[in-house]
Amino acid sequence: MNILILGSGGREHAFAWKMSQSPLCDSLYVAPGNAGTAGVATNLPFSVTDFKALTEALRQYQIDLLLVGPEEPLVKGVVDYLRQQPDLGHLRIVGPNAQGAQLEGSKDFSKAFMQRHGIPTAASQTFTVDTLNEGLTYLESHTLPIVLKADGLAAGKGVIIAETVEEAQATLRDMLAEGRFGEAGHKVVIEQFLRGIELSVFVLTDGVNYKILPEAKDYKRIGEGDTGPNTGGMGAVSPVVFATEPFMRKVEDKVVKPTMAGLQQDGIRYVGFIFVGLMNTKSEPYVIEYNARMGDPETEVVLPRIQTDLVELLVAAADGELDKINLQVSPQTAVTTVLVSGGYPEAYEKGKEITALDQLEEVTAFHAGTAESDGRVVTNGGRVLAMTAVANSLENAVRRSQEAARTVQFDGKQYRKDIGLDLIRYAD
């Protein structure tokens, strides 16, 4: 089977690493890929939104299975575009169509979906530039803190938690009147702040059947102790100690099943991953957000724990036969620590040489923002590497991941030294 993965981040390197191990995989391609994917696959030099180049590559390399990694091409309708090509009817695609991808592409759409189908979530209202004054008035009587979310895609940075009414009003003006998030901020969802502890639950579905994959907890903020601005993710842990069997049963009954039923009732044939961002509030699950793909860096701790052949799993999803697959998951713990460029999530420099990757032991370094230059591996993004360790205990996985984070070097390297420590305390 010839396989193409669309994307260039740590998530896509993790997918390529896992899929390259399958006996079902003959030739593996990643577009555009990075320095890490180049080690297990052939990189193709076109962007994730160049649908014309993608279509030509699918034909040229006789691709049988396409996995769409990031959200942008999904929201922009890559699946719909390919389904209109008469000679690509045989192509298996893992990823939802544009309508399904609206679960992530529009916060307003997803909140309305949850409310319509009785899925537990925070109370919210949506405002536009035309209703800015109503929004400012609405904030005056809102409980604190206040969550403001840009409606569209904002690379994981479109959520602001305001501690005062004045800050919330200034943020709302900034987003709607000043265009802080551009097109993504033309609508703003204002919602109540949920107290609790977050986790991410991942579902793979063929449109009818589904498998709940290993859960994970990620760390969004740049600073230790969850301080500073949001990032795309500074680390992740799987499994999550507070995701007990009774809690996960509630997640399936109150969230996953109604989500699947809601998609079918709304006439959305959804094939692919649904990432459910949850808040565990007094042992009850509330949905914070949906994503239409796997998370990053959560993929880098979820995939190492899946023992079932990943290609077999994805083919079954594309063929509508997930019910025939037995999903097997390792009981071990996976921890990843993300190394980021100096200045991230604000302005940062690229092209810094990365050294000591060859010194790593018992750890997989998933490349996120890397490139090859004159035979060297250099930084090429804000999030550079995800150092994933798998061990028999959370403590050992944390220790190995952190040792790897200390070992690898590049100018301006930053990383959080507290990934997983809150879960060790929680367990104690």
The CATH topology of the largest domain, please? Answer: D-amino Acid Aminotransferase, Chain A, domain 1
Gross morphology is globular
The Rg value, from CA coordinates, equals 21 Å
Give the integer mean of the pLDDT values. 95
Question: What is the strand content?
Answer: 25-35%
The strand order across the widest sheet is 3-2-1-4-5
- Total number of β-strand segments? 22
Structural class by secondary-structure content: alpha+beta
Give the CATH H-level superfamily of the largest domain: ATP-grasp fold, B domain
CATH class of the largest domain: Alpha Beta
Number of domains: 3
Low-confidence stretches: none
Number of helices: 13
Main sheet summary: 5 strands, parallel
Pathway: Purine metabolism; IMP biosynthesis via de novo pathway; N(1)-(5-phospho-D-ribosyl)glycinamide from 5-phospho-alpha-D-ribose 1-diphosphate: step 2/2
Pfam families: GARS_A, GARS_C, GARS_N
Catalytic activity: 5-phospho-beta-D-ribosylamine + glycine + ATP = N(1)-(5-phospho-beta-D-ribosyl)glycinamide + ADP + phosphate + H(+)
EC number: 6.3.4.13
Overview in brief:
The protein has 428 residues and is of the alpha+beta class. Helices cover 29% and strands 26% of the residues.
Report on this model:
- With 428 residues, the chain is α+β, with helices and mostly antiparallel strands.
- The chain has 3 domains: 2-84, Rossmann fold; 123-192, ATP-grasp fold, A domain (Dna Ligase, domain 1), CATH 3.30.1490.20; 197-427, D-amino Acid Aminotransferase, Chain A, domain 1.
- The chain has 13 helices and 22 strands.
- The chain has helices at 10-19, 51-60, 71-75, 78-83, 98-105, 107-116, 132-140, 165-176, 245-265, 299-302, 310-318, 394-407, 421-427; strands spanning 2-7, 27-32, 42-43, 65-68, 92-94, 124-128, 146-150, 159-162, 187-192, 197-205, 210-212, 217-218, 221-223, 227-230, 235-238, 272-281, 284-291, 333-340, 364-367, 370-373, 376-379, 383-391.
- It has a 5-stranded parallel beta sheet.
- Helix 5 packs across helix 6 (107-116) and helix 7 packs antiparallel against helix 8 (165-176).
- The protein is globular.
- The model has no long low-confidence stretch (mean pLDDT 95).
